[in-house]
User: Which sequence fits this backbone?
């Protein structure tokens, strides 16, 4: 057995075609988790009564569940209960009408929320309370202070961990093949399975993920420098 | 179909011992990958700090590959690729246990991540410490083991905690290769009884408990060893 470069090339091309799916699997959960995670983090940092306790327990528990388990459980509940649910709210959709990609998006979002919450929370804590006081003293409301003083300072602190979260999600999104969604890895595998060329398929997928990962890394290094510009100005 | 068909507490408790029997396999993957990977990572970190030519360039490519590709792809590349690579030398390892390939993949992965962590921690120890050690006549190796590593270890604790929890959760992928760890047992239960959700929840509970314990342990370690850092100055 040798590596067949012909098959490798074919798997590579098939994998490339599915890059948009992988990007979708990264950006959509990222977007929703950022919004939800931000509100959870704010509720926890400002100690909203009752809510902050519940949310702390939620994040602690759900941070412990691995990605693949979240996806498998979500998929299972979806398969078994979606028909009843659809009937209940009165829409005509059945399990087979729904693309697996939506289940994957939902599962990945569930997986990401507690992790991003922790990232955002630690960045939020790093902004000193005197910054809020400064905002209030010039007559800003709480949300104005948040928007124009705290968040701009929070972002550069958050950036390195956020990069890790982001690239981690990019890698973890490959697990969606266990529930049958077709992303880069699964696209390459489907092509490779026709010729029993599994090694070639995995190698092709690895190369594609490598390229995506490296380019994201570049982008984030740029963003990190860009968002942290005012800090450097202070040092000078 | 009523609720009992989907989920019942009796099955949740009934399946627990069966799933727990897979815990030693999971833990052995974690321990092996962490310690052997750590040793390998330490060697890699030293090579990168000392800027040994050619080796350093190779290692940069290796680390970038390990950091940018999914673990699952690495698992299968090792599983399919290693027999091919070793076959070139004329050794047949096709019949090895799957667990060995899984272990090799996790060790290689962990070595890359840990080496970055170790490297940054060692570089975070101020150069003055090394100079101070040389000035009182310690040799190179003595300086490393008595001055630098104790200080670097303390700096590395938060990173290590993230890394080991990630590794622990990452072992859940090993069942895709057919290793009978907790996940493997859970899906086997699912195949036998058609009631897989309780088994998965059992696995989730075990994962949550161990993750929380690990986290608490590392928070404790961090508090214990950051005594002089808190007071300001070292």
Assistant:
């Amino acid at each position: 057995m040798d590596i067949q470069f012909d098959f490798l090339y074919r798997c590579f091309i098939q994998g490339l075609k599915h890059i948009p799916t992988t990007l979708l699997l990264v950006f959509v959960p990222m977007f929703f988790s950022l919004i939800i995670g931000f509100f959870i983090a704010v509720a926890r940092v400002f100690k909203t009564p009752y809510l902050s306790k519940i949310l702390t327990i939620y994040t602690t528990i759900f941070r412990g569940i691995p990605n693949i388990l979240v996806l498998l459980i979500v998929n299972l509940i979806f398969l078994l209960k979606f028909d009843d649910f659809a009937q209940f709210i009165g829409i005509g959709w059945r399990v087979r009408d729904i693309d697996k990609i939506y289940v994957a998006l939902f599962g990945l979002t569930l997986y990401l929320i507690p992790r991003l919450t922790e990232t955002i929370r630690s960045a939020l804590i790093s902004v000193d309370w005197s910054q809020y006081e400064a905002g209030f003293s010039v007559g800003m409301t709480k949300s104005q202070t948040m928007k124009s003083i705290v968040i701009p300072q929070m972002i550069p602190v958050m950036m390195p961990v956020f990069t890790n979260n982001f690239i981690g999600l990019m890698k973890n999104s490959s697990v969606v093949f266990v529930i049958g969604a077709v992303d880069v890895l699964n696209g390459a595998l489907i092509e490779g399975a026709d010729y029993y060329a599994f090694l070639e398929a995995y190698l092709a997928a690895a190369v594609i993920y490598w390229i995506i990962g490296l380019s994201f890394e570049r982008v984030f290094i740029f963003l990190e420098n860009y968002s942290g510009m005012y800090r450097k100005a202070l040092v000078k | 179909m009523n609720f009992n068909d989907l989920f019942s507490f009796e099955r949740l408790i009934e399946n627990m011992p069966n799933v727990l029997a897979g815990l030693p396999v999971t833990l052995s993957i974690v321990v092996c990958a962490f310690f052997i990977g750590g040793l390998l990572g330490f060697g890699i970190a030293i090579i990168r700090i000392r800027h040994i030519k050619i080796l350093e360039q190779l290692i940069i490519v290796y680390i970038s590959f390990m950091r940018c590709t999914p673990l699952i792809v690495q698992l299968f590349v090792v599983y399919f690729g290693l027999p091919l690579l070793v076959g070139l030398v004329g050794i047949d390892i096709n019949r090895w246990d799957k667990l060995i390939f899984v272990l090799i993949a996790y060790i290689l992965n962990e070595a890359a991540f840990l080496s970055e962590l170790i490297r940054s921690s060692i570089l975070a120890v101020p150069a003055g410490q090394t100079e101070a050690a040389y000035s009182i006549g310690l040799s190179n190796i003595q300086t490393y083991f008595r001055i630098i590593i104790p200080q670097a270890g303390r700096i590395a604790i938060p990173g290590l905690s993230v890394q080991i929890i990630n590794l622990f959760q990452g072992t859940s992928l090993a069942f895709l290769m057919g290793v009978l760890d907790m996940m493997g047992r859970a899906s086997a239960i699912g195949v036998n009884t058609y009631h897989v959700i309780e088994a998965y929840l059992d696995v989730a509970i075990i994962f949550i408990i161990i993750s929380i314990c690990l986290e608490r342990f590392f928070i404790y370690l961090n508090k214990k060893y950051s005594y002089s850092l808190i007071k300001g100055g070292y």
Remarks:
- Chain B touches chain A through 36 residues (CB under 8 Å).
- Chain B has a mean pLDDT of 88.
